[in-house]
Specification:
mainly alpha; 5 helices; elongated; binds protoporphyrin IX containing FE
């Protein structure tokens, strides 16, 4: 294994996961407070979330691709500790939740506010969104522990 390649990929992997976790914490920060500012703030608030999603998706896929490349340069799946493979599997679960629950909830909120709907009417989507991003974050932190703590 080329040492420079291993350390380079590891650096990319750690930077990408830091951006992924950091952006998902910061993007929804103050969302409810912004919605409470009035109807003219609701659509821009959702658009800001959707704009941040682009960075989040890029960081998420960079984490996955650099992780997969690390597995390759380290000798393949068969030499990987179970915790890394479990972490990689959970990461796929995060994308699944993001793509099938979190993002659709955001696009429904957008359509609702774009059609002149109020915050009370958007509550089902807001709650779904908040629950799913919290589940995603719990999984991300669980993967972080699995990657770092050499338990099994
Ligand atoms: C939420 C997603 C992820 C987070 C937060 C994360 C975090 C980390 C961290 C912090 C390290 C460095 C561990 C250390 O130096 O002790 C690491 C290493 C690693 N990660 Fe991830 N990772 C994630 C997803 C993935 C995925 C999806 C894969 C594979 C497809 C992967 C494969 C690896 C590999 C192979 C290593 C190197 C282990 C070693 O050098 O012994 N990671 N990860």
């Amino acid at each position: 294994m080329e040492t420079w390649l291993y350390f380079g990929l590891r650096l990319v992997h750690i930077l990408a996961m830091a951006v992924w976790i950091g952006a998902t914490v910061i993007a929804p920060y103050g969302f409810r407070r912004t919605l409470a500012l009035g109807p003219e703030h609701t659509l821009p608030a959702v658009d800001r979330l959707l704009a941040a999603t682009t960075l989040i998706i890029v960081a998420g896929f960079t984490t996955f691709l650099s992780g997969a490349a690390l597995i390759y340069v380290m000798g393949g799946v068969s030499v990987m500790p179970t915790r890394i493979l479990v972490g990689a599997g959970l990461t796929l679960g995060i994308y699944l939740i993001g793509g099938t629950i979190s993002r659709p909830a955001m696009t429904k909120m957008r359509a609702h506010f774009a059609g002149g709907g109020d915050v009370a009417g958007a509550m089902p989507f807001i709650r779904t969104f908040e629950i799913s991003i919290n589940v995603e974050m719990a999984l991300r932190l669980a993967v972080l522990v699995l990657m770092v703590v050499k338990v099994f």
